[in-house]
Write a structure and sequence with these properties.
3 helices, alpha+beta, Pnp Oxidase, Chain A, 6-stranded antiparallel barrel, about 150 residues
Length: about 150
């Protein structure tokens, strides 16, 4: 009989694995809150540029409304057996004001360029200040892999 015990990774391994997923995954759960309307969570496509997460959504979305009122957000990748949580402050860029490099990289990854669509879109950029990563209970200790915007490995 084979066991599937979780081998506890070191911080450097967790960071490497988390960064690999940030590059390869396409969806992230975005949790926002508004002082009057409460919490909101939605999955969005995202791009990791090596320093920040870029997402794009309709200019009139609840996510954009919330971020403009309260920029603190939490992002999570969608695998509960391999958790990656990021926390930071979001900044909004109207589709015609987004940095060209970010918009092009987003379009390249998804084959969709919101700048050419009818209607208004907003790019949301989050530079993480904290990152956590763990696989199961054995990795709960040491799950913080970034603190105050600095990777710990």
């Amino acid at each position: 009989m084979e066991t599937t015990a979780i081998v506890r990774r070191r911080t450097a391994e967790r960071m490497r694995d988390a960064l690999g997923r940030l590059v390869s995954e396409r969806d992230v759960w975005v949790a926002t809150a508004h002082p009057d309307h409460g919490p909101h969570q939605v999955p969005l496509w995202f791009l990791w540029d090596g320093r920040a997460v870029w997402m794009c959504t309709g200019a009139g979305s609840v996510t954009v409304r919330n971020v403009r009122e309260e920029p603190r957000v939490r992002l999570s990748l969608p695998d509960t057996a391999d958790v990656v949580l990021l926390q930071g402050e979001a900044e909004c860029f109207p589709d015609q004001e987004v940095p060209e490099g970010a918009a092009e990289a987003f379009a390249d990854k998804f084959g969709w360029d919101p700048r050419g669509e009818e209607g208004s879109f907003v790019y949301v950029r989050v530079v993480p200040s904290t990152a956590r990563a763990w696989r199961g209970e054995p990795e709960l200790r040491g799950r913080v892999i970034m603190r105050d915007g600095t990777w710990l490995a």
